[in-house]
Amino acid sequence: MNASETRAKQAPPVPDAAAAGDGPPPGRADDSAVLQAIGLHVWYGRSLALKNIDIDIPRHKITALIGPSGCGKSTLLRCFNRMNDLIADARMDGDVRFDGVSIAGPKVDAVTLRRRIGMVFQKPNPFPKSIYNNIAWGARINGYRGDMDELVERSLRRAALWDEVKNKIHRSGLELSGGQQQRLCIARTLAVEPEVILMDEPCSALDPISTARVEDLMDDLKDDYTIVIVTHNMQQARRVSDMTACLMPDESSTDGQRTGVLVEFSPTDLLFTNPKDKRTEAYITGRIG
Amino acid sequence: MSDAADADFRPHRRLRRLLGPIFGAACLLATLTGVVVLTVLMGAILSAAVSGPPHAPWYDLGAHARELGSLVSRLLANRQSSDPSAAGYHVGVIGSLWLLALVATLGIPVGIGAGVFLEEYLPAGRVRRLIQTNIANLAGVPSIVYGILGLALFVRAFGVKGLALGPSLLAGVMTLSLLILPTIVITTQEALRTVPPSLRQAALALGATRWQVISGHVLPAALPGIMTGTILGLSRAVGETAPLLMVGAAGSLLRAPRGPLDRYTALPVEIYNYAKEPNREFQAVAAGGILILVVLLLSMNAVAILIRNRFRRGR
C-alpha cells in the first residue's frame, strides 16, 4: 500500500465496504469512518485478548475507548497502527481498515501506515535529543523536503508549546516538565502530518493542569485530525470525546483469561446519560471496574 | 494465640539476629582481602622508595624521578639486546600499537555488528539461544586456545598455500580480534538491551524503518555501554601474550613492522622474554616494560572514560 493509492481510493465518497467485498454486512461501514475494525480478534500467545470487535471510528471526531484494566483498550488501539506487530506472539484475525483499505496482513507496509496514523504514548517519551530535533527527526526520516525551521515552529505552535520553548529550542527535550514533554510528543507526531492520532492514556502521567492543557489541545486538533484516545478517566472521556466505546471483560469466558469485548459504542452524551448496556451502566457509575 | 499454635513455630530469634551481622562480617572480610594486599604493596613500595636499595633506581621514586624517566625513554628507544644496559622495547611497542590499531579496525565493527544483529534482527528463539550460549562460552575460553586456533586457521590455513598468512602481523591481529569478539558482542547486546522500549516505540510510531530506529536512536543511546565493552576488549588484546606466542610473534626482532604482512613482536612478548633471562639485570628491563604496558592500558581506559562522558553529556 502506498499513500497516494490509498488516497485515490478514498477520494470518491462511496460506501467502500461493499466494494471491498469480503466480510461484514454492507451498509455498516459509514463513509465518514476513517478506521474500522471488523470481526477483530486478537490473541497473545494462546489467550484471547479481544473478541469479535466491530467498530467504526468517525472522521474528525474524538473517540474515547473506556473500560476497566485489562479489557483490551490499548490492544485495540495498537491494532490500528500495527504496533502489535512488535509483540512476538500477538496474532490478529478479522479485518482492520483505514480509509476502507485493509491494513491487516503482511503485504501492508506498516512503516507507511504508521506515518499516517500517529501515536502518543502513556508515558511522555521524547527522544534524548534537542526539542528541535525531536520534531525534525520524524520529518527527516520520512523525507521531508520543506523548510525544517518552519515545520518545527508550526508543529510546536499547533501543540500549544511554542511560546514556552521558543527560546530554548536547542536544549534537550528531557529538560521539559512532564506536561510539556507530552505536548512535545504530540508536536512530534503532528510534524509528520498524520491523518489519525492514537493516544494511549496520554494524561495518566500528568498533573491536572497539564491534563487540561492537553485536553484543550485535543479539542483544537479535531478539526484536522481524527483522534482515538484510551482513557481510564471517565470524566476525561466525557469532557473531550464525541463518541465513546466501552470495552468490558467477557463474562462468558471460562478459562480465567481476560478477554475484551465491545459492549457499547455510542455518542458520548448518550453513553454517559443513558447507557443501553447494563455493564456500561455499572462501569460508569463506579460499581465495577 | 493458643499454645498449640505457638508450638508450631520455632522462631530461632537469636540465630536469625546473628545471621545478618555474620554475613556482613564475611562480606567485609572479602573486601579487606583486596585492600590488605594493596596496602601491603603500597607500603613495600613506599618503604623501598624511602630507604632505596642502591642498585635499583626505579624504586627510588623520591630522589630519582628523572632517572626513572630516562630509564623509560631509554627502554622505548632501544631495540632488543643481550646487553641489559642497551636493551629496550622499541620494536615491541611499535608492534603493539600496530596490533591495537588493526584489532580495533577489524574487531570493533565485526563485534558491534554481530551484537546488533543478534539483539535487533534475529528473532528470539532456539537459534538465537544457541548462538548466545556459544558466544558466552567463548568469552571464557583460555587465550592460549585462541592461539592454537589462530595457528591452524590463519598462520597455516590448514596447509592451503596462498591463504596461509605465516607468522605475520595480520595473523596476530585476526587471532586477537577473535579473542575479544565475544566481549564486544556481549557488552554490545547488553547495552542495546538497556535502551528503553518506549524510545523504539516512539520512533516506530513516527513511521521509522527498523534501520532508522537503530541508527537514529538505539545505537546512540547504547554507545556509552558499547564503548566500555570495546575498550575492555582492546585492553585485553594489548596485554595478551600467550596467543601471540602461538601465532608466531617473533622472539627476537630488530626491525619494526612496516605493514600488515610483516613479521612483528609485541610488548608483552618482549617482557616475557626479558623476564626469563637468567641475568638478574634483565629483571630491571622487564619491570620497566611492565611499567610501559601499565601506562598504556591506563591511558586507554582514561580515553574511554573521557569519550563515554562526552557522549553522555552530548545527549
How would you summarize the topology of this molecule?
The complex is a heterodimer of chains A (289) and B (315).
Chain A: H1 3-10, H2 16-20, E1 33-44, E2 47-58, E3 62-66, H3 73-80, E4 90-98, E5 101-102, H4 110-116, E6 117-120, H5 131-141, H6 148-158, H7 162-165, H8 178-191, E7 196-200, H9 208-221, E8 226-230, H10 234-240, E9 243-249, E10 260-267, H11 268-273, H12 278-284
Parallel strand pairs in A: 3-8, 3-9, 6-7, 7-8
Antiparallel strand pairs in A: 1-2, 1-4, 4-5, 9-10
Helix pairs in contact in A: 5-6, 5-8, 6-8, 8-9
Chain B: H1 3-7, H2 13-51, H3 65-77, H4 90-121, H5 126-138, H6 143-155, H7 169-193, H8 197-205, H9 210-239, H10 242-246, H11 267-275, H12 281-314
Keywords:
heterodimer; A: alpha/beta; six-stranded mixed sheet; four-stranded antiparallel sheet; 12 helices; 10 strands; B: 315 residues; MetI-like fold; 2 domains
Give a structural overview.
- The complex is a heterodimer of chains A (289) and B (315).
- Chain A has 289 residues and is of the alpha/beta class.
- Chain A has a single domain (3-284), classed as Rossmann fold (3-Layer(aba) Sandwich).
- In chain A, 35% of the residues lie in helices and 24% in strands.
- Chain A has a six-stranded mixed β-sheet with strand order 6-7-8-3-9-10, with helices on both faces.
- In chain A, α5 crosses α6, α6 packs across α8 (178-191) and α8 (178-191) packs parallel to α9.
- Chain A is globular, with a radius of gyration of 19 Å.
- The model of chain A is unreliable at 1-30 (pLDDT under 50).
- Chain B has two domains: 1-51; 84-314, MetI-like fold (Orthogonal Bundle), CATH 1.10.3720.
- Chain B is built from twelve helices and no strands.
- Chain B has helices at residues 3-7, 13-51, 65-77, 90-121, 126-138, 143-155, 169-193, 197-205, 210-239, 242-246, 267-275, 281-314.
- The longest helix of chain B has 39 residues, at 13-51.
- In chain B, 31% of the residues are buried.
- The chains are: A alpha/beta (289), B mainly alpha (315).
- Chain A binds chain B through residues 81, 83, 86, 88, 111-116, 118-119, 121, 123, 125-129, 137-138, 141-142, 172, 185, 188-189, 192, and chain B through 123-124, 196, 198-209, 212, 216-217, 220-221, 315.
